[in-house]
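Appendix B. Worked example

We walk through a single record from start to finish. Start with the input: the chain for Thioredoxin, Lutibacter oceani, length 117.
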Amino acid sequence: MTELLSKETFLEKVFNFEKNKEWKFEGDLPCIIDFYADWCGPCKMVAPILEELSNEYKGKVNIYKVDTEAEQELAAAFGIRSIPSILFVPKDTEPQMAQGALPKHQLEQIIKDVLKA
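Next comes the structure step. The output line below is what the pipeline stores for this chain.
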Protein backbone atom coordinates (compact mmCIF):
# COMPACT_ATOMS: atom_id res chain seq x y z
CA MET A 1 0.00 0.00 0.00
CA THR A 2 1.18 3.52 -0.73
CA GLU A 3 2.08 5.64 2.30
CA LEU A 4 1.28 9.32 2.70
CA LEU A 5 4.35 11.31 3.78
CA SER A 6 4.41 14.47 5.84
CA LYS A 7 7.50 16.66 5.87
CA GLU A 8 8.56 14.97 9.10
CA THR A 9 8.28 11.41 7.71
CA PHE A 10 9.88 12.53 4.45
CA LEU A 11 12.96 13.81 6.30
CA GLU A 12 13.15 10.46 8.13
CA LYS A 13 12.49 8.01 5.28
CA VAL A 14 13.75 9.75 2.16
CA PHE A 15 16.02 12.79 2.45
CA ASN A 16 16.73 15.17 5.31
CA PHE A 17 17.22 18.34 3.26
CA GLU A 18 17.37 20.44 6.43
CA LYS A 19 20.48 18.58 7.63
CA ASN A 20 22.19 17.64 4.34
CA LYS A 21 23.00 19.88 1.41
CA GLU A 22 24.12 16.94 -0.76
CA TRP A 23 21.66 14.19 -1.66
CA LYS A 24 21.71 11.40 0.94
CA PHE A 25 18.99 8.78 0.74
CA GLU A 26 17.71 7.73 4.19
CA GLY A 27 15.66 4.68 3.13
CA ASP A 28 16.37 0.95 3.00
CA LEU A 29 14.57 0.29 -0.30
CA PRO A 30 14.44 2.35 -3.48
CA CYS A 31 11.25 4.40 -3.58
CA ILE A 32 8.80 6.26 -5.76
CA ILE A 33 7.26 9.49 -4.49
CA ASP A 34 4.07 10.74 -6.10
CA PHE A 35 3.59 14.50 -5.64
CA TYR A 36 -0.15 14.99 -6.12
CA ALA A 37 -3.25 16.98 -5.12
CA ASP A 38 -6.77 15.72 -4.44
CA TRP A 39 -8.32 17.98 -7.10
CA CYS A 40 -5.93 16.83 -9.86
CA GLY A 41 -7.56 14.62 -12.54
CA PRO A 42 -4.33 13.02 -13.90
CA CYS A 43 -3.23 12.34 -10.27
CA LYS A 44 -6.43 10.34 -9.78
CA MET A 45 -5.57 8.29 -12.87
CA VAL A 46 -2.07 7.47 -11.56
CA ALA A 47 -3.14 6.61 -7.99
CA PRO A 48 -4.62 3.13 -8.67
CA ILE A 49 -1.61 2.23 -10.86
CA LEU A 50 0.76 3.15 -8.02
CA GLU A 51 -1.36 1.06 -5.61
CA GLU A 52 -1.01 -1.93 -7.97
CA LEU A 53 2.74 -1.39 -8.25
CA SER A 54 3.09 -1.10 -4.46
CA ASN A 55 1.56 -4.59 -4.17
CA GLU A 56 3.57 -6.05 -7.07
CA TYR A 57 6.90 -4.65 -5.79
CA LYS A 58 6.20 -5.12 -2.06
CA GLY A 59 9.53 -5.61 -0.25
CA LYS A 60 11.46 -4.27 -3.28
CA VAL A 61 10.25 -0.70 -3.72
CA ASN A 62 8.45 1.66 -1.32
CA ILE A 63 5.80 3.89 -2.85
CA TYR A 64 4.98 7.16 -1.11
CA LYS A 65 2.61 10.03 -1.79
CA VAL A 66 3.04 13.70 -0.92
CA ASP A 67 -0.03 15.95 -0.94
CA THR A 68 1.33 19.18 -2.46
CA GLU A 69 -1.51 21.21 -0.91
CA ALA A 70 -0.77 20.03 2.64
CA GLU A 71 3.02 19.84 2.21
CA GLN A 72 3.83 23.03 0.29
CA GLU A 73 7.33 23.26 1.76
CA LEU A 74 8.19 19.77 0.43
CA ALA A 75 6.75 20.60 -2.98
CA ALA A 76 8.80 23.82 -3.05
CA ALA A 77 11.98 22.01 -1.95
CA PHE A 78 11.69 19.81 -5.05
CA GLY A 79 10.58 22.58 -7.38
CA ILE A 80 7.22 20.96 -8.11
CA ARG A 81 5.51 23.16 -10.71
CA SER A 82 3.05 20.68 -12.20
CA ILE A 83 1.37 17.57 -10.87
CA PRO A 84 1.50 14.70 -10.93
CA SER A 85 5.28 14.78 -10.55
CA ILE A 86 6.84 11.45 -9.70
CA LEU A 87 10.26 11.19 -8.07
CA PHE A 88 12.15 7.92 -8.57
CA VAL A 89 14.72 7.40 -5.83
CA PRO A 90 17.29 4.62 -6.34
CA LYS A 91 19.30 3.45 -3.33
CA ASP A 92 22.75 4.55 -4.48
CA THR A 93 22.38 7.24 -7.14
CA GLU A 94 20.66 10.58 -7.68
CA PRO A 95 16.86 10.64 -7.88
CA GLN A 96 15.09 11.34 -11.17
CA MET A 97 11.85 13.26 -11.66
CA ALA A 98 9.15 12.48 -14.21
CA GLN A 99 6.12 14.66 -14.85
CA GLY A 100 2.61 13.78 -15.93
CA ALA A 101 0.39 10.73 -15.64
CA LEU A 102 2.64 7.90 -16.83
CA PRO A 103 1.12 4.60 -17.99
CA LYS A 104 1.85 1.46 -15.96
CA HIS A 105 4.24 -0.07 -18.52
CA GLN A 106 6.36 3.10 -18.47
CA LEU A 107 6.45 3.15 -14.67
CA GLU A 108 7.51 -0.52 -14.67
CA GLN A 109 10.30 0.27 -17.15
CA ILE A 110 11.57 3.11 -14.91
CA ILE A 111 11.41 0.80 -11.85
CA LYS A 112 13.56 -1.68 -13.76
CA ASP A 113 16.02 0.82 -15.32
CA VAL A 114 16.34 3.51 -12.62
CA LEU A 115 15.48 1.69 -9.38
CA LYS A 116 17.01 -1.64 -10.48
CA ALA A 117 14.11 -3.53 -8.85
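Two observations about the output. The helical segments are 7-13, 41-56, 72-77, 104-113. The two ends are 17 Å apart (CA to CA).
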